Amino acid sequence: MTEFDAADDARRLSPEGDVGAMLTPLSASGAGVRALMVRKLADIVVLPSGRISSNERSLVADILLQVLDKVEPDLRAEVARRVARVSECPPALVRMLMLDEPAVAEKILGGAESLPAALLIEAAREGAMAHRMAIARRIDMTTAIADACLSFEEMDVCKQVLRQEDCELSPAAVNKLVALSAVNKDIQSLLLRRRELEPAHGFIMFWWVDGERRRRILTRFSLDRSTVQDALADLYPRVFRGGDNDSVVKEILILAERRHRPRGVNGEPVSMDIVKRTLAAACKYPSQEVIDAVAMIGGVSRDLAGRIVRDAGGEPLAVLCKSLGVPRDEFYDFYARAADVDEAEAKAEKLLAIFDSMARDFSRAVLRYWDWDTNPRIAHITRLMTKVQDEIGLRPISDADAFDPQEFDDAAGLNLD
């Protein structure tokens, strides 16, 4: 062997001879061999596509899968940060890093410009709340990813998803958020700004939002039923006078009726004077008998009538009075004649503004929505609300202002005839 060959072998066998060829050189700090190997493998994984084939990259990723969970979180976070910049990284390695502890997963969930939707959905479903928060902040969130993030009903995640205005929410997601809004005011304000919200959602939320949001709901979801009424006009005589008594069609025709006429116990027309006296009595003494009378003249269920007259805000009664054609001055007097004159007049003024802002047909449509328990979507949201009540301990809204008949000695004896 020549002196040249011996020198060449010595250089080849010494660590110092390889330093120039290494992507990650040996450190003088004494790093462990396991950490050095992970860094060297990461160097290979992040090589440009022209330097390594997809099969070779997958091989290196498979090796990393075996060793990454055996190194410190800081090193895994370093690898995740580097992998986040490589779009060609094998999905198996990306998945492992995305489902790692939050400090590691954040590097790739927050740093990668593009990640496969399937992996994001899987990370949302299998990860912790911190993973879902990181995913919900991504600008490339899709409808399916949002559904996965919302599936755990975590309030902070829900609020973050709602802030993503460029992501369209699915109907199921909106229904769930409407139910959750009953227990979180932040969700209410964010949800009311969403374009996906429809009248059914708004009129359900009406019962647990404050006065300002109630006014926004009535303004935003104002509607005119004349097109529907004109299209169905020829069916009224066939169903109500012609003997074609289809119960499904009859229910829809009642729902779309142009104007409600107050009726008494035996179906006889009721004068406006009796209507006003009944509503005035309801404002003062909401006994069960008075509530039943309100339901009868208003053409609504007893449950809805009770909710309307017991509501502390007064906006539902403004809707009912408008639908019945109560004169505005009479409606104002229902509230302005209370004991605390200044406070009563201020409240009467606010409610009168709502009363004046509504068309009579629209107020009737709102009542129908409130009383539309057979509608599949409304029934579904009601079931979701029941689930929220069971899980979070929410008190049923209809019981929020429960009335004790014993408070009023003679309330049940009012003469409304």
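The record above closes out task 2.4. Task 2.5 opens with a second protein, given below.
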Amino acid sequence: MVNDRVQLLAGRAGIPYVGGKKVRAHSLRAGPNTDMIAAGVLLRERNRRGRWSEGSNTADTVYDRTLVKPEDDPLAKVPLGGFDGTA
């Protein structure tokens, strides 16, 4: 049900795919994990925040989107915090 809603909204926004992967409910977990990877957050802390089991590699094997090029990610254009600071 959540996945259907996420796909519906992504389609309406004109971004049904990010980096060649269909936007799904799991994308909501992949984005924050990828941001934490970029910020240098260790796997143990990402597991805690993502509620994955301690010692799990899921954050690195399933929810890592660091190989998606910024030009292939329409969400890369969205400023962090929802604003660009020029107002």
